[in-house]
Design goal:
By secondary structure, the protein is an alpha+beta fold. 40% of the residues lie in helices and 16% in strands. The longest helix is centred in the C-terminal third of the chain and has 17 residues. 43% of the residues are buried. The N terminus is likely disordered. Bound molecules: flavin-adenine dinucleotide and 2-acetamido-2-deoxy-beta-D-glucopyranose (4 copies). The site of flavin-adenine dinucleotide has 34 residues, from strand 3, helix 11 and strand 10.
């Protein structure tokens, strides 16, 4: 027999008070020495009928559960400091296999059997994707995957999972690149992809309310008849919830901003099941802490995002594509900064280096044959052709001044699409080249460094020197408007360690140049040491304090962004 959730759900309000009065040590003593005191304390407000209905063996289970769960709270829970250092907390204790089974039974009651799944195919899908250089360890696999359909589902599920201390990894499109959704602990994956309704398109207010599992490409398709679009983009299969949680940006971000500047409000379910709306729907607000932004980029470690209100942008009435080819990288990046200084702000500025242009040329996907030199792809938009032409004129002047040899302006929308498709299909061109010319099983290690714009040329020069020295082949793609570049290094399986040390050297270089190791992909559990290097230990300890304040049981996406367990030795 097992206890149904209702049987030992805590009376709201009172219980959490009494929790706080007890330290973990007290509780262990009480539990082991005096079950009855504990029971009367905890079940005081339950009716005798309920208590009577529960068999003696269940009392034991219940009490042990409590003991196990309570001992999870270290006595130094909130040390007398502003931050929480890793060594000041103890190892988290999570649900035992039998407690997990209890939780699963309760989840089936709430969500229905079809939404609680552990078939091998589903588990495998939620274990890894082919884009991560780091493979999960063999045991890093979810035990179950659950599919909530509404905010209420998520709330009820979290209340159960929190009560049993089951680790919960939120998951949406599964396209993230740094081990973000690896099940480092034995727990469940909460897949929010079935919450995919567009709730309201408020075209006059330029915003849209969505359930968080909407795919951004489909959302843009639904917005197109309104002449509207969202500001950020990412991998084609990414969903809004994942984009919020990685602060995704992509090709359009230099104009429209990363996800953080495109979110007005969020509905978030906290680890204990409470539902929070971070704002109403105003564009402006100075009311209280910025909870919306707290959850953006939090990689599923603080709450489950279930709904979002996003800003919309009008699709430019008129937009054209320009391609400029430059003899050197410095010429191309100087062009970018001078354009900004001149007040021209293209909708997209993408830089492809000579190696990348070689892959594109090699792929034969395009009618055009390209010179294999650093190349900038621009989208220039505006209200009318005249306004766009005016900007293109300045763009051409500045490019030519910076030694641009080929300045290609699309003559039609079709031609523009074709030109830009060279950028859009870059990823496939890279893989095609690597598989044919290097190794059929070639792998790609993607970096994500961003630096201040003026530092881009010297940093890239040093990156090339490192690559030459290493003997690896690579390509560089940059969101040049944001000085965020992906140096993608080809490697074979047996070269992984050597490749990793090259990648680490590159990230060090980005950091000493006032940059970041993660411009848009996030930290996951692949870049945790670089976060400390970038921001310093105190900043990371402050993040840990926030994490523990919101998620004291450390159940949400454990081990991501920073360590939450002093015994975690698991650097990749
Ligand atoms: C081919 C390719 C191209 C890409 N290009 C870009 C690019 O240009 N720009 C860019 O920024 N990224 C890019 N990415 C990376 C990736 O697409 C983004 O990181 C994206 O935001 C991930 O979204 P997702 O839905 O796949 O999230 P997932 O991978 O499912 O999850 C990402 C994170 O969000 C958390 N999460 C998911 N759902 C929820 C929820 N409901 N509540 C709380 N937390 C949640 C997860 O726990 C995880 O930490 C690319 C990836 C690929 C494969
Ligand atoms: C907490 O910090 C204050 C101020 O630094 C100090 O006076 C006090 O002794 C500290 N208390 C404990 C328990 O460490
Ligand atoms: C980016 O913005 C342009 C308009 O500037 C729009 O046409 C396009 O669909 C947006 N998204 C992507 C991924 O390019
Ligand atoms: C999100 O991205 C923007 C632009 O890259 C950056 O300015 C901001 O600090 C990021 N926010 C978070 C929470 O990561
Ligand atoms: C482009 O690629 C083709 C096929 O690989 C090659 O023949 C040609 O010389 C390349 N063009 C340039 C400009 O390098």
């Amino acid at each position: 027999m097992y206890l149904r959730g209702d049987d030992f759900r805590e009376p709201k309000g009172q219980m959490s008070q009494s929790h706080r009065e007890l330290t973990s040590r007290d509780l262990c003593i009480i539990v082991y020495n005096s079950n009855h005191i504990l029971m009367s304390r905890y079940l005081f407000s339950r009716t005798a009928a309920v208590v009577g209905a529960v068999a003696a063996s269940s009392f034991a289970t219940y009490t042990l559960t409590r003991a196990h769960l309570q001992s999870n709270l270290p006595s130094d829970w909130f040390p007398n400091e502003s931050t929480t250092k890793l060594h000041s907390i103890s190892t988290p204790q999570y649900a035992t296999p039998s407690q997990l089974q209890h939780a699963i039974r309760e989840l089936r009651d709430v969500l229905g059997d079809t939404n609680v799944v552990n078939t091998p195919v589903v588990l495998e899908y939620h274990t890894r994707n082919e884009f991560n250089p780091h493979e999960p360890k063999p045991h890093e696999k979810p035990k179950y995957v659950i599919y909530p359909r509404s905010t209420n589902d998520v709330s009820e599920a979290m209340a159960i999972l929190n009560r049993y201390r089951v680790p919960v990894v939120p998951f949406s499109g599964g396209t993230s690149l740094e081990g973000h959704f690896y099940s480092t602990r034995e727990g469940i994956v909460m897949d929010t992809s079935k919450m995919d309704q567009v709730l309201a398109i408020n075209s006059e207010d330029l915003d849209v309310q969505v359930q968080a599992g909407v795919n951004w490409v489909r959302l843009n398709e639904q917005l197109a008849p309104h002449q509207l679009m969202i500001g950020s983009d990412c991998g084609p299969d990414g969903l809004i919830s994942g984009m919020i949680n990685t602060n995704a940006s992509g090709i359009n971000a230099s104009k429209y901003g990363a996800m953080i500047s495109n979110v007005i409000s969020l509905t978030v379910v906290l680890p204990d099941g409470k539902i929070v709306r971070t704002k109403q729907r105003p564009r402006k607000s100075s009311s209280g802490y910025s909870l919306t932004q707290l959850f953006v980029g939090s990689e599923g470690t603080l709450g489950i995002v279930t709904e979002a209100t996003l800003k919309l942008h009008p699709i430019p009435r008129y937009e054209t594509v320009i391609v400029g080819q430059f003899p050197t990288l410095l010429d191309s990046t100087k062009t970018v900064s001078q354009l900004y200084r001149a007040g021209v702000h293209p909708n997209a500025i993408e830089l492809l280096d000579r190696d990348m242009m070689h892959c594109i040329n090699y792929s034969g996907y395009f009618t055009q044959e390209w010179a294999e030199v650093p190349t900038l792809f621009f989208k220039v938009g505006g209200m009318s052709k005249a306004m766009v032409d005016e900007q293109v004129k300045v763009l051409k002047e500045i490019s030519v001044k910076n030694n641009c040899k080929d300045f290609i302006a699309a003559k039609s929308e079709e031609e523009g699409k074709e030109l830009f498709s060279a950028r859009k299909n870059a990823f496939y061109a890279i893989l095609n080249y690597g598989r044919n010319e290097i190794d059929p099983d070639i792998r790609l290690w993607v970096t994500d460094i961003a630096v201040p714009l003026s530092k881009l040329p010297p940093v890239l020069d040093q990156i090339y020197a490192m690559i030459r020295e290493s003997g690896f082949q690579s390509v560089i793609l940059a969101h040049a408007g944001d000085a965020n570049f992906h140096c993608d290094v080809f490697y074979k399986d047996h070269e992984k360690d050597k490749c990793e040390s090259l990648i680490n050297k590159m990230m060090d270089l980005g950091l000493v140049n006032e940059g970041t190791a993660s411009g848009e992909h996030g930290i996951g559990n692949g870049k945790r040491t670089f976060l400390i290097q970038e921001l310093g230990q105190d900043a990371v300890d402050l993040m840990r304090r926030i994490k523990l304040a919101v998620d004291p049981n450390r159940i949400l996406n454990p081990d991501k962004i920073f360590k939450i367990d002093p015994n975690d030795k698991g650097e990749f």
